[in-house]
Amino acid sequence: MSAGPELAGRAAELGRAIDYHNERYHVLDSPEISDAEYDALVRELRVIEAEHPELVTPDSPTLAVGAAPSPLFAEVRHEIPMMSLDNAQSEAELRSWADRLARLVPELGLAELPFSCEPKVDGVAISLTYEHGRFVRAATRGNGVVGEDVTANVATVSSVPQALAERASPFPAHLEVRGEIYMPTKEFAALNERQVAAGAKVFANPRNSAAGSLRQKDPKLTAARPLAFWAYQVGELDGANPDEAGRGAGQRWGPESQSGALELLRSAGFPVSPDARRVVGIEEVIARCHELEEHRHDLPYEIDGVVVKVDDLALHRRLGQTSRAPRWAIAFRFAPEELATRLVDIEVSIGRTGRATPFARLAPIFVGGSTVQLATLHNEDQVRAKDVRPGDMVLVHKAGDVIPEVVGPVLGHPDAPRRRKGPWRFPTTCPSCGGPLVRLPGESDTYCTNIDCPAQRVQRIVHFASRSAMDIEGLGEMRVVQLVGAGLIADPADLYGLGTAPLIELEGMGQVSAANLLGAIDASRRQPLSRLLVALGIRHVGPTVARALAASFGSLEALRSAPADALAAVEGVGRVIADSVVEFLANPANRLVLDRLVDAGLTTTQPGGPGRAPAGAAVPQTLSGRSVVVTGTLGAYSREEAEAAIVARGGKSPGSVSKSTFAVVVGESPGAAKLTKAEALGIAMLDDAGFERLLETGELPAP
What we know:
alpha+beta, Helix Hairpins, D-amino Acid Aminotransferase, Chain A, domain 1, 7-stranded antiparallel beta sheet, 5-stranded mixed beta sheet, 21 strands
């Protein structure tokens, strides 16, 4: 039975939400929801896609790993993809995973099968490359295929060896080691103490502080942060997976087991977690997971679970992988922690769209590895449903050790007062401007409708300058508040009229910092149209939708004149987003700001990529009505560019192979399941050259 429009809309909504939160976590190092809430979104989308495969899109986040690398750093392509891990959140899910292993390799005896149980360190995954025993490169995971070159920054981490220990020789000519950059908990606490003393920003948790430290443009700033490293895997070995390498005399770098690989890494001078254990059988796996969960805060570093791997590397190749995760490993996620504390007050914050979000101000409590004083309450309905009131003792739930939330009141707590106040009421006026707060019909959110609200103004400019938008370095929230307060800016267009003289009058702003800020603002003029669309803060328009609109229309002028039907016809957009874009562009105040941005010289076009004709040019419909699947990484095209080239020529590019598939384009590291199905159905498979011919002529190359 096919999916109805309501279910299709929910799948699209989930995809956009997951993409947004992926970027907040992986690129911006500033997550807005907990791991548990994020996992719930992904699980819901996977259930929908499993029941309705026709809703699976090529850019579905269920097929992706991590997030796109930051443009701040050069790109590094991983020869062996850095994949994500599937999660288990209970003993039952761990046992189900073990049962799947047994079905894949029937001769396995689960009771005697060795596993490697390793603490899941809450840090940043990193790939280190060594040539003839010397450190030469470091790269982040990125999207699993392409990461960021952070060599200079990682070179400052003292626990990363610059040369391998001689006792581990002979060294392979090319060795990749994978691990985690993290910040020890004591060092994190000391860092925050120094930040407070200096009046600087306090970091939310060790993971975010490690990620932010690693992504500094100046390695000296990274060197000043107390980062450390654990190695957990041998990656590429002389151009092959370690389980495919030779194991003859002198081939000690071709280990036979994961536990053996850890010992080899340790002997070579890499720090390896002393809490990694080799256990036998799934029952010992479960016992070790619970043991680490019980003692998680006794460790000198934060962990949010346990990574369980089949120990025998030869089995890794037999068990294989899905499109995003190996089948031979799983991450057991710890249950979120909950503790009771006093709810001091409920306040409301105003975001860039005017949305009023209630939050709890709490008596400080140490939960999930850090001290919590604020927690989200989401919206008016959530507060009413939970029936929490100032003065209550409340249960605080820090899911995934990221964003805390109030679960509900603990009325039976010994410290709970008698409830003399009535239920908390959502305020009717904005705490920033005093304007009315209005709840829109059919929505759960409440908004300040005053477009000149100071809080909205600040947040709109902060969003405009953010990394995923115009990427104006040095223009964070504190600086924007300062500029708005001084009357220098009131909207994003004002940024491009700033001069040195008024800037250097501001506290903490000298000639150098003023020049740097003005240089960053000037450089942002060259950002493509897709970035500008994100920066405008149009409701429902994130990076994925912005790129689709920019690629389809080519220029801001064409987009501004396009009717809603034309926008809705763009793949991945639809009626709701199209109406939101049209409404935004028709608003007189927005039109005025846009005109001023254009006059300021911002780029209002989208550069053409490989396989795309220049904006406005007629594209031959060589693939009209045909379905072409792309798998793996192509040489001349990104996945997005390849799919855009197919769609531009009238074709479709679904994420799965079926009887209706015309051809499969195969790049490096393709999905095994897609290749197997294509072979079984006798579908043509093309390399880069064959794909070029297909785009040009619509014909398959001769066998």
